[in-house]
Amino acid sequence: MSKLSFDRILQSQGYGTRKYCRSLIEDGEVTINGVVHDNYKELIETDGLVFNLFDEDVVYREHVYIALFKPQNYECSRKPSHHPGVLTLLPEELTWRDVQPVGRLDHDTTGMLLMSDDGAFIHAQSSPKRHVPKIYQATTAEPVTDELIAQLLAGVQLHDEPAPLAAQTCIKRGEHQLEIVLEQGKYHQVKRMLAAAGNHCSALHRSAIGGLELASLEIEEGDWCYLTAEQLALLAPA
Ligand code: URA
């Protein structure tokens, strides 16, 4: 159980500056169970809190954990240069909360991108020590051969890497389709590994992270959803 003043609650949920949140409350714009609460100093229990603002019910969340179905031609960097940033796909409240991507996908890679405003979660998920498997579906320019799979499983040497990097799993899914599972998240890793093994990645999609499959979330490309505790537990072993 934890109580916070109403203005802090509104601000923490991404509704703007403290001053603006106070004015929303004082103007009677925010209701709880249909009752206007216009004193911004009122201490309100956050556990299970749902308030209504601009005709929308908002569930209070201490932190947000999001999966985005990233489309092509969006950049994950904080300062995108050639394409819009992935944050532009989220509602304003979430960007006010300083939601950030967990790791990066290339601008032309599609698929599951985790995002959160919980620094500890971002750090833990990105940590190489955690060995979170990332499942990619790669389209290859040259046919997928047994030799290619053997090379990727044995490990390929990339420039600037001290030791060869190996795929955890590699499955041929079609003449030019390869499912590749990586535990690391090095820069352009799938593309560079395929190039080092004599092929070329012409399209890349991340279909799952740990045991959480993008398809199970039933979101369209460009859409996002909050992750439940059960879905978060599927991401990786603790
Ligand atoms: N490997 C790549 O080459 N690109 C990505 O976006 C992700 C993994």
TrEMBL record:
<dbReference type="Pfam" id="PF00849">
    <property type="entry name" value="PseudoU_synth_2"/>
</dbReference>
<dbReference type="InterPro" id="IPR006145">
    <property type="entry name" value="PsdUridine_synth_RsuA/RluA"/>
</dbReference>
<dbReference type="GO" id="GO:0006396">
    <property type="term" value="P:RNA processing"/>
</dbReference>
<dbReference type="GO" id="GO:0003723">
    <property type="term" value="F:RNA binding"/>
</dbReference>
<dbReference type="InterPro" id="IPR020094">
    <property type="entry name" value="TruA/RsuA/RluB/E/F_N"/>
</dbReference>
<keyword id="KW-0694">RNA-binding</keyword>
<dbReference type="InterPro" id="IPR020103">
    <property type="entry name" value="PsdUridine_synth_cat_dom_sf"/>
</dbReference>
<dbReference type="GO" id="GO:0001522">
    <property type="term" value="P:pseudouridine synthesis"/>
</dbReference>
<dbReference type="InterPro" id="IPR000748">
    <property type="entry name" value="PsdUridine_synth_RsuA/RluB/E/F"/>
</dbReference>
<keyword id="KW-0413">Isomerase</keyword>
<feature type="domain" description="Pseudouridine synthase RsuA/RluA-like">
    <location>
        <begin position="65"/>
        <end position="196"/>
    </location>
</feature>
<dbReference type="GO" id="GO:0160136">
    <property type="term" value="F:16S rRNA pseudouridine(516) synthase activity"/>
</dbReference>
<dbReference type="InterPro" id="IPR036986">
    <property type="entry name" value="S4_RNA-bd_sf"/>
</dbReference>
<dbReference type="InterPro" id="IPR042092">
    <property type="entry name" value="PsdUridine_s_RsuA/RluB/E/F_cat"/>
</dbReference>
<dbReference type="InterPro" id="IPR050343">
    <property type="entry name" value="RsuA_PseudoU_synthase"/>
</dbReference>
<protein>
    <recommendedName>
        <fullName>Ribosomal small subunit pseudouridine synthase A</fullName>
        <ecNumber>5.4.99.19</ecNumber>
    </recommendedName>
</protein>
<comment type="function">
    <text>Responsible for synthesis of pseudouridine from uracil-516 in 16S ribosomal RNA.</text>
</comment>
